[in-house]
Amino acid sequence: MQFLPSTAQGIGINPYNDQQAIFGAAKLLTQFGYKQNPLRAIGAYNGGPGNPQYGYANQVMSEANRLKGQLGGVAGA
């Protein structure tokens, strides 16, 4: 996961610590409303809450769907 320094500081994580970065991304996606609108939340993770990047979100979901059978998880759930 990648974070701007200000974003990492705002959610209280060290972005260079893999575990903190993963949980930080989950926290942001939850804050951005992932359960209600996954595409908007993923787009907001990329472009900020006021500027969701839907093209990026669609690419992420497409790749997740492509990989879901290989990884044993459920993409988009």
In a few lines, what is going on in this structure?
The chain is mainly α and 77 residues long. Helices cover 64% and strands 0% of the residues. The chain has helices at 5-11, 18-31, 38-47, 54-71.
Write a structural description:
The chain is built from four helices and no strands. The protein is an all-alpha fold and 77 residues long.
Reported for the largest beta sheet, the result is: none
* Percentage of residues assigned to helices: 55-70%
Distance between the termini: 19 Å
Please report the number of helical segments: 4
Runs with pLDDT <50, length 5+? none
User: Total strand count, please?
Assistant: 0
Strand/helix succession: HHHH
Principal-axis shape equals globular
Features:
77 residues, 4 helices
List the helices and strands and how they pair.
Blueprint: H1 5-11, H2 18-31, H3 38-47, H4 54-71
